[in-house]
Fold this sequence. Notes:
This protein is α/β, with parallel strands linked by helices. It is built from 10 helices and 8 strands.
Amino acid sequence: MSYTTKKIIAGNWKMNMKKSDGLNLIKSIKEASKAIDESKTEFIICPPFTLIDAASEELKGTNIGVGGQDCHTQTSGAYTGNISADMLKDLGAKFVILGHSERREYEKETSEYIAQKAETAIKAGLIPIICVGENLQEREAGLELKVISEQFDKSIPTNEATADNIIIAYEPVWAIGTGKIPTLEDIEKIHNLIQEKSQERFKTKDINILYGGSVKPTNAKDILSLKNVSGALIGGASLKSEDFIAIAKASEEE
Ligand code: PGA
């Protein structure tokens, strides 16, 4: 996906949804998304691996793209339990979330490792959604700009990446699943920094930057109307079709 002025509404289902509930949710999002103007909105759904195949089949021919939530640094080989970018692509995925804070924290993923994954994903023809974000301690110490800047430098591969073949997601860790969000000025400030970093690295500020962390139908309009917010990466609220679509609806109104 190249830089777009459409709003990107992306759902991260995390480790939720067994087969039948997941399929029902995909079908109900597909149906409800018909009420949303395709010229203004681009949808992405990132279900668990177990539902990628079914989601791709069900969503063929719609404007809802499918993404994985992780992939390995290698294309194939002796890596028990892992899934490669090639495998995701083979099942019809177009995107893959990489470097989500839950993987950085629980799976001890470093920015350098994330960059390797992103390079492999791009080579496989996927668009990585690369997540960056400060934790609460870093925010309280006023270090958010430094942290995001470093994560940008190290998590985005120096080979392969362009402003057109990656998406960045700014997700302050303390805002994920907590109901708390930064002030709109703070969101703007961080997105502005990411645009500046993109200007340095890619010679353009035109790069898709999502905000993620407690995006709900009630706050979506304010967040998505910020000029440098390209869309949202949504966890909890993406598991209910009404909420997910209501967020897209709110973005149409801005
Ligand atoms: P949340 O999660 O919307 O539930 O806060 C966002 C995310 O983790 O991507």
